[in-house]
Design goal:
Length: 237
């Protein structure tokens, strides 16, 4: 199916990064449950919630510092290099698709990016090393250097609006592809999980590669319940 496809949409979830050493959200013992992301409304309401959000963020960063792209990331980068996969739609926030060689334009981040911070008022980017230095020195996250606004990791938290441009691009790609290739997603987090069904409705073939069953398995043209790495390494030439 990959060989026959003219236009491929990649779609990834946390499962593509487990082989890089970053656990997924729902598998047993996940540290994401211990350091649960703070919901957006709470983050806005309370300075203590903001401090706690940054404490949890830095605790997770310390656990996975130095993670490198997996065979899955590298296999997808090879598919992109073949010219038939314009972009990967990802739920991940770890930046590993970019590190595997995809350009910023080739990664559609539905849930943002946890490798830098953004001002909630003026959107200005701030680097995490600087945020952390300030946080470690007085226990408070710094304000935006341009407008004094609240800084937050550039991820989309529970309760935060989805990013318009990423949603638009993902819809366009899902509508135009003839193969939608899912890797490592439980396909239960919406609205992201709507894209595979959307592509299928528009006539694309659907492949799901995931360790365990997903709610969309019955809609797929091919389901592979296996580890991603050995399968996607076949795309690396
Ligand atoms: P999920 O945790 O709900 O599901 C991941 C799926 O991948 C699971 O069904 C699991 O069985 C499967 N899986 C794990 N390792 C695998 C492997 N090596 N081979 C094949 N399958 C494997 O993840 P999700 O669907 O992406 O949704 C969770 C949310 O949490 C997302 O919104 C995402 O933003 C966030 N998250 C991101 C990261 C990251 O950026 N690396 C990590 C954890 C959570």
């Amino acid at each position: 199916m990959v060989q026959e496809a003219g236009l491929i949409a990649g779609f990834t979830g946390a499962g593509i990064s487990t082989e890089s050493g970053i656990p997924d959200f729902r598998s047993p013992g996940s540290p994401w449950m211990r350091h649960k992301p703070i919901p957006f409304d709470l983050f806005l309401q309370s300075a203590e919630a903001r401090r706690e959000a940054w404490r949890r963020k830095f605790a997770m960063d310390d656990l996975y510092r130095g993670a490198r792209p997996s065979q899955g990331h590298i296999g997808l980068a090879a598919l992109a290099a073949s010219g038939r996969m314009p972009a990967v739609i990802t739920q991940n926030i770890d930046g590993l698709h970019q590190e595997s060689g995809l350009s910023a334009d080739q990664v559609i981040e539905l849930h943002g990016n946890g490798t830098y911070a953004k001002c909630l008022s003026c959107n200005r980017r701030h680097e995490l090393d600087w945020v952390r230095q300030c946080f470690d020195s007085d226990g408070d996250p710094p304000e935006c250097i341009a407008c004094g606004g609240v800084l937050k990791s550039a991820t989309i938290s529970f309760g935060q609006a989805m990013p318009d441009e990423a949603m638009r691009r993902a819809q366009k790609l899902a509508r135009s592809c003839d193969l939608f290739l899912v890797a490592g997603s439980s396909l239960i987090v919406y609205p992201a999980a709507a894209f595979p069904a959307f592509a299928k409705e528009n006539g694309a073939r659907l492949i799901i590669v995931n360790r365990e069953p997903t709610p969309l398995d019955s809609e797929a043209d091919l389901v592979i319940h296996a580890e991603i790495g050995p399968i996607f390494s076949k795309f690396i030439t």
